[in-house]
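Backbones bend. We report:
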Amino acid sequence: MSNLNLYAVGAILCLETLCGCIRSTVGQYVYRFYLQTYPHSMIIAPHYSNDSSNTDAHHLTTINNNTNCTTNAHIVTSGAQAWAQQRSANLFFWIDLSNGIPVIIATYLLGVYTPRLGIRLVAMIPMSGLSIQISIWLAIIYFHLADYWWIIASIIVGLSGSGSVLIFVLHLIVTSCTTERERSSRFVLLGAITTSLSAVASFAVGYYIAWRGFTDLFWVALVLQLLSIVVGLRFIKPSHFIVETSATSRCRNHSVELSTNANNVHIREPSKAWTEFFEVFTVFTFNRRSHKKSISLYVTLLAFAFYTFTSSSMAVFLWYLLGVPFCWSSKEIGNYSALSSIASAVLRVLGIEALTRFGASDPFICVISHILFCGSAIWIAFAQHNWAIYVTLLINPFTTYQGSLTWSMISKWLEPHERSHAFTFVTETHVIMMAAG
């Protein structure tokens, strides 16, 4: 049954990855929309070294009133481009701001009460919220709704917990289906699989935007999200995953001798509900485990928080490639994203296997990952040519181990009944750092 559960997790992750690749293009759509609505502007298709151009209405073009945007050319950004970038930035500022507080609250509540609500229900809530968000996007496109509907969609998906809660649930499932010895490799393997799929999706999405535009893609995203819900309802069985807390663990220890057929049902005391609510803040206290383990947990959490915060700053990287000196199109961004995902999928797995064979521990691997991340960020900051951007593809795959290994390291240092609340804290940290970044 554990293999079936892992396959179900893999299927959901793949569907969510495909859907996420499409949803990530919404920024390009908004930017393109504002370019089209800029008054007194002249849209000129950009000229590239391969002399290719596209007149598709949905293709992300570069606006320039006086000069063409050529690869590696240092040009002055036109008024239309600056206006579109400013409007897009303002809109997404309010989208992120309106999403931040709801997703923080929802992540905490759903994480704390996962043992009571059940894994399947908690997984369905964010998937349903994402489906509603995409539906609102389609309504905005077809009915030309006002900009505040983007914010409403963001609030709804925030109240559902967004993808953070879904990842939290899937990590709980993987943890319960694997042994301590194989857990780290399983997390990295699942990450590599989804990254490989993301490579193919990014490549296809970039070319599809150039051919047909964004609208059809958003319909595909909605279908993929609904398929994720179907897979979750079919294969995530609440009876297969009994998420323990300290209260349920104590209750089971008292009742195990009195019950001859528990059938996966644990008696819970009603008075423990509010205790569980605050247990997220006490699960890492020093009196629960040895001093050495506690120090290791705090260092890991601190490293994860800084990693998440700095990674969130790289979210503007693709927007950076749209402007000077690169002036990339949607197709070029799709090509780069695809190559990045392929390199990440292959080199990440090879890297973790090589380091493990040499006897490197998870914390040491994370240290190497942080050093390479700093080097990659500095390199990108001074990059002026396309080749310099592509060089980072050889470094970036080794900069993401902290995100994958944090869950594995924490699970090894905690008791089974502590993992749910600990994972909730990690997820909440991720959400807060992403919002702050």
